[in-house]
Every structure is written in structure tokens, then in C-alpha cells.
Amino acid sequence: MPDNSEANIATADALTLLLHNQHAICAAIEEVTKWLSENGEVSIAANAIGAMETLDANAQDITDAIMRLRQSSPS
After folding, report:
1. Record's superkingdom (predicted)?
2. Integer Cα distance of 6 and 18 in angstroms
């Protein structure tokens, strides 16, 4: 069984990969939102913007958690 520092490192690594995926999803939503706006789908684009705002807010919390996990693991 891995010790706590190994578990923290593994968790931080997994969260980092999820964070990268989250950034990619946000970028894709941004592109779709731009297309929607340009094609008159303003209300749908507004919903997509709300989703991006949620992704952005959660990204900061995930980043903070990653930093706490990495700081609690001895180098």
C-alpha cells in the first residue's frame, strides 16, 4: 500500500490530467459559442458561456487542491 505522500502525488497527477481535459473542453465550448453567436443563436451561446464560467471557477479550485497535495508531499 502506498504511503500518504505517494497517494498525494498520484492524486495530484490525476487531478492535473483532469484539469488539462477541463481546459480543452472549455476551449471547445468557446469555439462552439463563437459559432453560435455568429449564427444568431444568442440564447444558446449564453448558456454555453455559463458553462465556461463554471469550468473556469472549478479550474481554480482544482488548481488549489493540486497545489495543496503537492506541498504536502515531501520532495
Report:
1. Bacteria
2. 18
CA gyration radius, the chain: 17
d(CA 44, CA 37): 8
Provide the b/e sequence for 10-34 (b: ≥16 CB within 10 Å): eebeebeeebeebeeebeeeeeebe
Q: Which of 11, 39, 54 is nearest to 31 (CA)?
A: 39
**Tens of pLDDT, residues 26-64:** 999 999 999 999 999 999 999 999 999 999 999 999 999
